[in-house]
C-alpha cells in the first residue's frame, strides 16, 4: 500500500463518525501525530467511553467539529465512515480525503480522494501500512483500534496479525495492559437500559438459528451485543430517539451466511436514511417512525440469507 499522501495545507482537520469508537479515534490520534502541529482532531460529538479513555491516556487534545472556525484552505480528512447519517456534521462539505474499511454499497459521502479497503479489519490497520509509525503512543492507538474493530482478532487476516505484531513490539506494553486500556466498564445508564429492554425481546427461529428483535430507548448497540452473548445468532435492536436507529449484531459462526452490512444498507433505504457496517456488526438510521416496521424487514432479510445460503455463498436479497 502506498504511503500517506503529502498535504501542503496550513491546517488539517481530522474527523470521523458520530460516537467515535477506538478504530476512529485511535486512527485520528496516530494520524495527527504523524502530520504534526498543523493537524487537529475535530470530533462530531462526544466519542465513546473507551475512545475518551485512549485520548486521556495519550494526552491527545480534541475539539468539536461544530465549534471549529473553518478556513477555505483547510484540508479535511474523514476516518472510518462514509455514511451520510454517521457524518451529519459534514452536510454540505466535501472532504478532501476519506480513509475507510467499510464496504461501499452506494450513497456514501463523496470525497475528493477515497482510500477504501473492505478486506482490512479496521481503519487503523489501513493507517498502519500507510504510516508505519514508530512512536509508542501512535502504535498503542492503532493497535487498540485493530483489537477493537477485529473483535479481538475474530475477523483478522494475515495482514492484521503482521500489523499487530509490529505495533505490539513497538508499544512497549503487554497485551493484557492493552486489553485493559481497550475496555471501559459499562455505564450505569447502559446497564439500566439493557435490563429494561429485556421486556421487548422477541425471538424467531430460522432453521437452526435464532433471530432476536428488540426495542431500546438508548444504547441499542450495547443491547444487541448482549442478545448475541445470551444466545441469539443475529440480533436487531431498534431505537426511537431523535431519529430512528437500528443496530445489528451476528455471531461469528454466521460469517459467510449473513451479511449485516448488506442487510442494513437495504434497511436504511426503507427507513428513509442509510445503513452499512461490517459483515457481523452494522447499523441503519432514518426516520423515527420507521423503526418498528423496519425491524420486521431486518428479520425477513436475515431469514432469507440464513435459509438460502449454500456452501457459504450468499444469494441475492429479494423482496
Which characteristics define this entry?
37% helix; 319 residues; globular; Diaminopimelate Epimerase, Chain A, domain 1; 10 helices; disordered C terminus; 19% strand; alpha/beta; 6-stranded parallel β-sheet; 6-stranded mixed β-sheet; inorganic pyrophosphatase (n-terminal core); 12 strands
Summarize the SSE layout with pairings:
Blueprint: E1 12-16, H1 22-35, E2 39-43, H2 49-58, E3 63-64, E4 75-79, E5 97-100, E6 113-116, H3 123-131, H4 136-149, H5 158-171, H6 175-182, H7 188-197, E7 202-206, E8 209-216, H8 220-230, E9 234-240, E10 244-250, H9 260-270, E11 274-277, E12 281-286, H10 291-308
Parallel strand pairs: 1-2, 1-4, 2-3, 4-5, 5-6, 8-9
Antiparallel strand pairs: 7-8, 9-10, 10-12, 11-12
Helix pairs in contact: 1-2, 1-3, 1-4, 3-4, 4-5, 4-6, 7-8, 9-10
At a glance:
By secondary structure, the chain is of the alpha/beta class. It contains ten helices and twelve strands. It has helices spanning 22-35, 49-58, 123-131, 136-149, 158-171, 175-182, 188-197, 220-230, 260-270, 291-308, and strands at residues 12-16, 39-43, 63-64, 75-79, 97-100, 113-116, 202-206, 209-216, 234-240, 244-250, 274-277, 281-286.
Amino acid at each position: 500500500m502506498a504511503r500517506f499522501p503529502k498535504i501542503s495545507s496550513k491546517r488539517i482537520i481530522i474527523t470521523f463518525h458520530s460516537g467515535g469508537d477506538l478504530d476512529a479515534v485511535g486512527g485520528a490520534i496516530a494520524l495527527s501525530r504523524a502530520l504534526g502541529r498543523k493537524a487537529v482532531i475535530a470530533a462530531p460529538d462526544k466519542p465513546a467511553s473507551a475512545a475518551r479513555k485512549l485520548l486521556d491516556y495519550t494526552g491527545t487534545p480534541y475539539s468539536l467539529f461544530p465549534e471549529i472556525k473553518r478556513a477555505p484552505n483547510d484540508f479535511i480528512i474523514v476516518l472510518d465512515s462514509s455514511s451520510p447519517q454517521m457524518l451529519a456534521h459534514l452536510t454540505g462539505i466535501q472532504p478532501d480525503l476519506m480513509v475507510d474499511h467499510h464496504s461501499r454499497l452506494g450513497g456514501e459521502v463523496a470525497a475528493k480522494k477515497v482510500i477504501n479497503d473492505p478486506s482490512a479489519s479496521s481503519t487503523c490497520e489501513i493507517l498502519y501500512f500507510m504510516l508505519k509509525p514508530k512512536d509508542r503512543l501512535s502504535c498503542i492507538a492503532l493497535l487498540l483500534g485493530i483489537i477493537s474493530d477485529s473483535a479481538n482478532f475474530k475477523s483478522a487476516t494475515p495482514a492484521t496479525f503482521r500489523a499487530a505484531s509490529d505495533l505490539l513490539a513497538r508499544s512497549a506494553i503487554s497485551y493484557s495492559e492493552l486489553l485493559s486500556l481497550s475496555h471501559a466498564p459499562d455505564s450505569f445508564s447502559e446497564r439500566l437500559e439493557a435490563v429494561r429492554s429485556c421486556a421487548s425481546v422477541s425471538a424467531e427461529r430460522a432453521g437452526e438459528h435464532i433471530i432476536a428483535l428488540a426495542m431500546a430507548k438508548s444504547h441499542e448497540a450495547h443491547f444487541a451485543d448482549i442478545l448475541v452473548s445470551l444466545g441469539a445468532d443475529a440480533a436487531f435492536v431498534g431505537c426511537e430517539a431523535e431519529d430512528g436507529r437500528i443496530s445489528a449484531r451476528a455471531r461469528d459462526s454466521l460469517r459467510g451466511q449473513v451479511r449485516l452490512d448488506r442487510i442494513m444498507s437495504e434497511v436504511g433505504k426503507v427507513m428513509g436514511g442509510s445503513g452499512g457496517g461490517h459483515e457481523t456488526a452494522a447499523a441503519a438510521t432514518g426516520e423515527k417512525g420507521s423503526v418498528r416496521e423496519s425491524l420486521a424487514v431486518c428479520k425477513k432479510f436475515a431469514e432469507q440469507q440464513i435459509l438460502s445460503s449454500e456452501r457459504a455463498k450468499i444469494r441475492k436479497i429479494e423482496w
